[in-house]
Amino acid sequence: MHFSNRYKINDRKDFGSLIVVEGIDGSGKSTQIHLLEKWLRSKGYNVFLTEWNSSASVKEITSKGKKKALLTPTTFSLLHATDFADRYERNVYPLLRGGYIVLADRYVYTALARDIVRGCDRKWVENIYNYAIQPDIVFYFRIPIEIAVDRIISGRPKLKHYEAGMDLNISKDPFESYRIFQGRIVDEYESMVDSEKFTVIDATMDIEKQQNITRKHILKILNNKKKLE
User: Fold this and answer.
1) Taking the model in full, what pTM does it have?
2) Exposure class string for 29-53: b at 16+ Cβ within 10 A, else e
């Protein structure tokens, strides 16, 4: 993935920090990033949390497309790219320039994993997001597929069409389709671990232990930035 070179690492001493969490549904990444947000705020840092597919400008049309099952892989990809661009322009980039710590629950890696699984060309997807700045750290919460899937589907009577990957015609059974779909996304994440320098967290550990590990990494980043000031 080629990120924006608008700011080289040495030029970012006055920049904020971009901390990203990635992982499949059920990996516990959202729990971890919300805990990080509370912890950083308690330390007096200016923090902003941004979540995937949360732009008000795009949310309504995306929801309508999903309900009617009208989204092609390319349309799906472009809608999420529009959502990302809107959040990036309005919040992520300006706040980083203002010295904030920006926490991202999913970043461009989610688009890469999901869009490629849906059949989009890797280079095409990478080019869509090539303006994005490289994160200071990406935590990848690794978890066995069966554990993650069981967390999601336990007690849930129904899975949504696109959530289950039914648009890929993998299986007529939504739950089986979901397992296969998530498994393929895991494969894409795993292919990025080394090339994108993910910091891998064992998501089967206790929540507190995972949190302590992520905090140690973040403190190191923040301390290094203070040395540049």
Assistant:
1) 0.92
2) bbebbebbbeebeeeebebbbbebe
Spans of all domains in the chain: 15-224
Mean pLDDT of the region 80-109: 96
DSSP state string for 26-40: TSSHHHHHHHHHHHH
Whether the Cβ atoms of residue 88 and residue 3 lie closer than 8 Å to each other? no
Taking only the tens place, the pLDDT of each residue in 157-181 is 789 888 999 999 999 999 999 999 9
Q: What is the CATH number of domain 15-224?
A: 3.40.50.300
Residue 129, burial from CB neighbour count under 10 angstroms (0-12, 13-18, 19+): buried
Rg from Cα positions in the chain: 18
Alpha-carbon gap, residue 119 to 150, rounded angstroms: 26
Amino acid at 158: K
Answer whether 25's CB lies under 8 Å from 114's CB. Answer: no
Return the structure tokens found at 148. Answer: 């993650």
